[in-house]
Amino acid sequence: MACGKFFHLEGREEAFWLRGVSYGPFSPDSAADVDADFARMASLGFNAVRVHELPDAAMLAAAEKHSLRLICGVPWAEHVDFLGDAAVWQVVRRAVVEAARFLAAFPCVAALLVGNEIEKTLVRWMRPQRVRAALEELIALARAEAPQLLVSYATYPSTEYLVPRNADFLAVNVYLERREDYARYLARLHNLAGNKPLVISEFGVDTAAQGEAEQAATMRWWHAENLAAGVAGAVWFSFTDEWFRGGSAVTRWQFGLTTSSRQEKAACAVSRDLPAKRVPPSPAPRFSVIVCTRNGARTLQTCLQSLQRLNYPDYEVIVVDDGSTDATAQIAQAFPEVRYHKKAHAGLSAARNRGAELADGEILAFTDDDCQAHPDWLLHLSHAFADAVVLAAGGPNIPPTPRNRVERVVAAAPGAPAHVLMNDTEAEHLPGCNLAVRKSAMAAIGGFDVDFTAAGDDVDFCWRLREHGGRGSLRFVPAAMVWHHRRFTVRAYLRQQAGYGDAEALLMAAHPARFGPLGGARWLGGIYGDHLPADDPREGSIFHGALGLGAFQTIYAAQGAFRWWDWLTGLIWLLLTLAALLLGAGWSALLLPLFAMAAAWRVAARNGRLCGLQSGLDFMVLGWLCFLQPVVRETARVRGMIAHAARPTWQPVLPEIIPPLKPRKHSLCLATRAFWSSENGDRHALLDALVRELERQRRVIRLDDGWRWHDIEVSPQKEVSRAFLTATEYHGSGRCLTRVRCLLRLSRAAVWNVLLWIAFTGLLSAWAPPVNWLGWTGLGLTFATLLFGSLKVRRDLIRLLERAAEQANLQKLGSEEPSRPGSPV
Question: Which of 235, 280, 548, 615 is paired with 799 by a 20 to 30 Å CA distance?
């Protein structure tokens, strides 16, 4: 089962590292001896096998016999526009349901992949949001049939933004041949995975092109980098060179560890010799784990029990009691290996400073009394400090499985402590519940500021530490995780948010340049919370490469995106309501609180789905928390600003990460056409012909620069332009079905002008004669212009397209959604 960033076997505390190899598919008349092959896999050190088709009885029996777990893919037509045809989509859904129902009966089946590598230009054609929603639907269907199975989708770097939010783990097929590139990309994938396990579902080396020696050497460093990055599992592609796809044997590539006749290659000897787990650095630095607590008896025992089970050779545990009045002392003293120290109550920062004074380790690892450390927590942190530039390191803090409704709802509520990253590895802020720092570096900046008694101390500490150490001094280690209880009651949660607001006021007093004019913190990096950073894949947020062909398509958060639910949270709606009442708006002023509640419910709906809430009552309580949280936090911040005389600067520090601007135009589809070729005539042939035709007509064009969801734009400098979007389905043996959308592109200004003109003429039409006839005339002329103008543009685009298709020798299939000639491969 998935537990945070790792897999665990039922009833075991240590992480289970999934080490797999892919197998098949084979031709129907293959003579492969599955039992002998699985026995060989087990002897090579593998504990899992990935298959791209549903296993038969012989494969299931062999897996059970040799204690191998199966990762099963569901074969379906991922290479076609499956969302454009309701019948095809129903076939896909039925295939996933039947596969999950069949596999649920076999204990050797560990995971189900509902899809594999949907082609990047098809994803752009169908729209990433729709594709991700479809994958999430398939995952939900599979989980309903087989709740004990892990379920995910195997994406690849060209669609790395396709991260289903309800998947149990992130599965990615990666082929990077340079070690440093692979290591960097693992760090990025960890951040895309969020708080879930990361599995490299395919990686391999073609011995036909690079030789057996290169394959063996690559396997050795690949395994080492996987262990170092803390991935939950990895699958080598493949066991044998025997491989059947698209109706014929694949002979050009030889990725197998064995030949088609099962002769071992050099990588097999390497595979048998690979270590099963990561070991500490040599020499291992001594850690002092410091737990600061005040009346933490409810959770302290489980915290200290987890620290007893750390897989690390040299560490001590110090509990600093900040004036507790409950059973904290008795609990801590029941652990003879724990050094317990009690002091008069002076706040969290003072307690952390006292723990540092008592520590004899060269590295101080701070955590909270409501946290439970993963057994490999210090193991992964220790390797980060092998780099002399690193002064502090930390990892994610993940809420454990909720035990009741309140914990489940609070875990989904906003405002949880989060890390802030400058890039995939460099941090700007690491939460104090999972923060390790060199003792010498902490002394150099004077420790924690004692003015911060409950929260905000870690933010101030990290900002000062980064100013002292410079770039790269704070390292994020995604595998160094701790479980962190959010809060156990709604009252405690709201009290925590109020404390965060007061801490923000203290931070503002100490670092005014870090806050904007409205009081919000200005982070240099990006904030990562409980949810995925790539949560809004829309036009302008994905760099997909020219014409959608980028090998690594990266998602960015669009800068300046207007989100009405963000503007109507916190104190803003209260102030607007008060202003409306003072201006005599009457009962209409109450519309603002209704909009604010709608904004809160929108946030609740998103967070609730991501956290797996099912009950309507859970969503209702979460909606109220999303409504109250910004009000409570901002009220405390304003009160703290007054009490501490804190003022933000009017010239704040600008972020170092500046995402791209959104496209300034919106697209309207006027027509869809499809063209068939039996001679490899794909979208590129059509686009080349379109370019030639447009150039012949002396039209100004712009090809896609990698940010837009169209391939060619005509008259791009105008407020209203025209564009074409294409995608090709490859059906094997040179058969290609190319789809084209004819688009009308409207600038934001044009859209607003039209809407304002319609609103103005609509108001005129509501007046008394003779003014109203002007309004009706204006409305009629406006809609007639829009209708006939759109038809004219549509006719022009279709004529251009048909001329280009004729030049490219493509056969037109008609104006409606075409049937697909030939069977999918």
Answer: 548
Q: If residue 457 lies in a helix (H) or strand (E), which one and from where to where?
A: helix 457-469
Cα 569 from Cα 566, distance rounded (Å): 6
Q: Specify the pLDDT at position 551.
A: 86
Distances (CA, A) of 517 to 306, 498, 563, 579, 770: 44, 21, 19, 20, 50
Instruction: List all residues 6 or more positions away from 476 whose beta carbon is below 8 Å from its beta carbon.
Output: 393, 394, 395, 419, 421, 424, 425, 426, 427, 430
Strand partners, 50: 22, 71
Residues 6+ apart with CB under 8 A from 80: 88, 122, 729, 737, 820, 824
399 with 530: CB under 8 angstroms?
Answer: yes
Tell me: the pLDDT tens digits for 8-41?
888 787 889 999 999 988 988 887 899 999 999 9
What is the reported pLDDT for 552?
A: 85
Instruction: Give the residue ranges of DSSP H helices in 511-615.
Output: 564-567, 572-582, 591-610
- Residue 381 host element (H or E): helix 377-384
Confidence class of residue 62 from pLDDT cuts 50, 70 and 90? very high
Which pLDDT does position 531 carry in this prediction? 46
Residue 543 φ then ψ, to 5°? -90, 105
- Model pLDDT for residues 716-736, shown as the tens digit of each residue: 989 999 999 999 999 888 899
The per-residue pLDDT for 635 is: 83
Least confident range of 62-76, 183-197, 375-389, 660-674: 660-674
Ramachandran angles phi, psi of 628, nearest 5°: -85, -30
Is pLDDT at 394 greater than 60 in this prediction? yes
Q: Which residues pair with 291 in a beta bridge?
A: 319, 367
Query: Tokens 């043996």 label which residue?
Result: 733
Nearest-10 crossing angle of helices 771-807, 748-765: 150
For 287-395+430-488, CATH number? 3.90.550.10
Which run of H or of E encompasses 712? strand 712-714
User: Which two three-digit tokens encode residue 377?
Assistant: 């927590």
Cβ pair 426, 513 in contact under 8 A: no
Return the sign of the alpha-carbon dihedral for residues 376, 377, 382, 387: positive
Give the range with max mean pLDDT: 354-358, 453-457, 570-574, 580-584. 354-358
Domain 15-272 has CATH 3.20.20.80: yes
Amino acid sitting at position 174: V
What is d(CA 165, CA 160) in angstroms, rounded to the nearest whole number?
A: 13
Contacts of 327 (CB under 8 A, 6+ apart): 297
The size of the chain, in residues, is 825
Task: Single out the residue of 267, 343, 341, 280 nearest to residue 314, CA to CA.
Answer: 280
Dihedral over Cα of 563, 567, 568, 569: its sign: positive
The residue to which tokens 């601007």 are assigned: 661
